[in-house]
């Protein structure tokens, strides 16, 4: 079935304000000044008036915070830069409502496809993983090494944990917030998606995938370091399979808002 047809069907099942469900979209961003404004505006366009867009600015040195706030987001800054994992954890702590959606701040995910993730949540899923491999990859959306690296990591997770995931590194996901806060997360960098996925599987949560589109970046470049972050992702898979201990564990339960930027 084509993505436009799926999108129309998903919009008929999207949680609404009338059902009492509040959605919070969390965007972790680092030096995404040129990209963050259009992303926030795109997200706001598909949300209800009582929903929230939360941008966690991970120590940016550009105008990420100002542009996000001007576009209508609540902005929380953490300084200095601590890594995507820590930014996502901060977003989980600060999020409000019943359902949280994660979307990248670089513009590669399409905000108008958020209903594709929310539809299965409304039907009982605990986590919905947006997969570009069962959806659509636009030209220039992913490098060849990252393409095959993602497929390898997904196959490795499937082998070790007995699941059928096509896009284990997706950053475009929806969660029931209460389920997400049941987990303890200690990722610091890009291994955050892997840790959250595997812990959801081990906890017995209902995890489904939805086809989404992945576009190329409009501006800037990724801070993903292929060797460093790939190694951290592989180590995370093995650690969670072998059940070895971890060091600093950061609770994802909500805490009071500390610093906000609305400039």
Search tags:
single chain; Spore Coat Polysaccharide Biosynthesis Protein SpsA, Chain A; 9 helices; about 40% helix; about 20% strand; globular
Description:
The protein has helices spanning 3-11, 33-46, 64-70, 84-94, 114-122, 144-161, 177-180, 192-202, 226-242, and strands spanning 23-29, 52-58, 74-78, 99-102, 127-137, 173-176, 184-185, 207-214, 250-251. The protein has 263 residues and is of the alpha/beta class. The protein has a single domain, classed as Spore Coat Polysaccharide Biosynthesis Protein SpsA, Chain A (Alpha-Beta Complex). Strand 1, helix 2 (33-46) and strand 2 (52-58) form a beta-alpha-beta unit. The radius of gyration is 17 Å and the shape is globular.
CATH H-level superfamily title: Spore Coat Polysaccharide Biosynthesis Protein SpsA, Chain A
General form = globular
Radius of gyration: 17 Å
What is the typical, i.e. mean, pLDDT? 86
Strand content: 15-25%
Biggest sheet, strands in spatial order? 3-2-1-4-6-5-8
Helix content: 25-40%
Structural class assignment: alpha/beta
Blueprint (SSEs and pairs):
Elements: H1 3-11, E1 23-29, H2 33-46, E2 52-58, H3 64-70, E3 74-78, H4 84-94, E4 99-102, H5 114-122, E5 127-137, H6 144-161, E6 173-176, H7 177-180, E7 184-185, H8 192-202, E8 207-214, H9 226-242, E9 250-251
Parallel strand pairs: 1-2, 1-4, 2-3, 5-8
Antiparallel strand pairs: 4-6, 5-6, 7-9
Helix pairs in contact: 1-5, 2-3, 6-9, 8-9
């Amino acid at each position: 079935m084509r993505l436009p047809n799926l999108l129309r069907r998903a919009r008929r099942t999207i949680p609404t304000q009338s059902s009492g469900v509040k959605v919070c979209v969390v965007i972790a961003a680092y030096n995404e000044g040129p990209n963050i404004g259009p992303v926030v505006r795109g997200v706001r366009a598909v949300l209800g008036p009582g929903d929230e867009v939360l941008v966690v600015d991970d120590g940016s040195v550009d105008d990420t915070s100002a542009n996000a706030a001007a576009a209508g987001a609540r902005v929380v800054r953490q300084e200095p830069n601590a890594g995507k994992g820590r930014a996502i954890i901060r977003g989980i702590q600060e999020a409000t409502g019943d359902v949280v959606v994660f979307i990248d701040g670089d513009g590669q995910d399409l905000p108008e496809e958020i209903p594709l993730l929310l539809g299965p949540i409304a039907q009982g899923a605990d986590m919905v993983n947006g997969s570009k491999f069962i959806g659509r990859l636009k030209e220039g959306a992913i490098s060849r090494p990252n393409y095959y690296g993602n497929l390898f990591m997904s196959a490795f997770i499937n082998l070790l944990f007995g699941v059928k995931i096509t896009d284990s590194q997706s950053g475009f996901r929806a969660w029931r917030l209460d389920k997400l806060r049941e987990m303890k997360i200690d990722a610091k960098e890009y291994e955050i998606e892997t840790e959250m996925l595997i812990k959801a599987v081990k906890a017995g949560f209902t995890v489904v995938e939805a086809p989404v589109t992945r576009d190329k970046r409009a501006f800037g470049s990724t801070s993903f370091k292929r060797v460093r972050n790939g190694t951290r992702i592989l180590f995370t898979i093995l650690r969670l399979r072998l059940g070895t201990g971890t060091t600093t564990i950061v609770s994802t339960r909500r805490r009071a808002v500390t610093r906000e930027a609305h400039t």
